[in-house]
Structure formats: C-alpha cells, structure tokens
Specification:
By secondary structure, the protein is an alpha+beta fold. Helix content is 29%, strand content 25%.
Length: 213
C-alpha cells in the first residue's frame, strides 16, 4: 500500500505522544515541530527496511514479480541455475522452477546448508523434490543460485517474487498494510534514539512487555 510521508509523520507523532503506559515517549512542543517532522521523515526508509527484513514471509506476500532469464552452469535444464536479482532487491520471497515439486527453501550463503549444495550426490543437494535457493553475491551482482533441476531443455521460472528496497518517491513510499503499525513503531523508536529519550533498558522492558516475557 502507498503511504504519503505526511501521513507517516502524522502517525508517528501520534505514537510518540501516546505511549502504551499513557506517558508520552517525548514531549512535543510547537517550537520544535519542524525539526521533529524532519527527523521523523529521515527515519522512514531505514525503519521500513529493518521491518521488511525481519517480517515473516506471509506478511510480505505476494511481493513484486521477479522476471529474469536463467543461466545454467552445466547445460540448460540440468543442475544448478543462476537467477540474477534486480538492483532494488531486498529479500527473496518465493521461487519455483517448472520442474520442481514445490517452491524452494530460501537461504543465504552464510547458512550451514550452503556447503551441501556443491555435493555431487543428488540426494544431498537441493533437487526437484527439495529445492533450495541461495541468495549470494557474485562479481556480476546479487543472484539466487537454484539447486537443482533435472527437467532438461524448457525448464523455466514458474513463479518468483521478491521484496524491493523501500524508497521514498514523489513524497510517497510503499509497504504492506499489515506492517504499517510495526513500521511506524520502528520510526518512533529510531526517532527517540536520535533524541536520546529512550535507552536500551527501556527497549528491553518494552520488548518483554509486548511479548509477554
């Protein structure tokens, strides 16, 4: 959903002035209105990116369609395929090749299971029954290594979606409606950190309270 910066700033100011325990997170005085609004606006992209990186996949679906041509390491339709990722890529949500029985399990190249993808044994590495997609950096840019295929010539990307880096454009920014409250809360937190009105102890206490710990 598309949100205006003006609306986000307004929602954040409301949150800053009405904390869960009925004490304002900060005292909002008129002489500092412009400065505060600018500070809030400067936190929007950072907060949105943090929340989108942490959110469960179901809250981000369906994402943006990923359209790119596959590059095959061995021969077309066999073994590992490489899927180039776009410049605005933030997170891979879903990928499935036409010869796979299910969507891939998505990991990064720091995951312990990445090393098994180079195994010569089909039962160990990702395969059409248990496909694996690894997001990794190559000299040519960010890619998803797709393990693996056996369908031969004609294997294509059946479905692929990703989350784009959230950026303000023409005074607006886009994110899932389901995450609006979480992102505004993160903006408020980052604003308070910059103002020095929230400590790490305060954050830990709020986290325990919100998660019933």
């Amino acid at each position: 959903m598309l949100y205006s910066v003006r609306q986000i700033v307004s929602d954040t100011r409301v949150m800053l002035d009405h904390n869960a325990d009925e004490r304002p997170l900060i005292r909002i005085d008129d002489p500092y209105t412009l400065t505060l609004d600018q500070l809030i606006a400067s936190k929007i992209e950072t907060a949105a990116r943090q929340v989108l990186e942490e959110a469960p996949p179901h809250s981000l679906a369906p994402g943006k369609p990923l359209r790119a041509s596959l590059a095959w390491v061995e021969r077309p339709g066999w073994g590992m395929a490489v899927l180039p990722l776009p410049d605005d890529f933030l997170r891979l949500l879903h990928v499935r090749l036409s010869d796979w029985r299910r969507p891939a399990r998505i990991i990064t190249d720091t995951h312990p299971d990445y090393r098994w993808q180079a195994s010569p044994f089909a039962g160990v590495r990702g395969n059409p029954d248990r496909p694996v997609a690894v997001v990794t950096q190559r000299p040519t840019g960010l890619v998803a290594e797709l393990y693996s295929s056996t369908g031969g010539v004609g294997v294509t990307v059946e479905q692929a979606q990703y989350v784009a880096v959230p950026l303000i454009a023409n005074g607006h920014i886009e994110w899932p409606q389901l995450l609006h409250y979480d992102i505004v809360s993160r903006i408020a937190l980052l604003t308070c950190r910059s103002l020095g009105t929230v400590t790490q102890a305060d954050e830990s206490q709020n986290y325990r309270r919100n998660n019933n710990i």
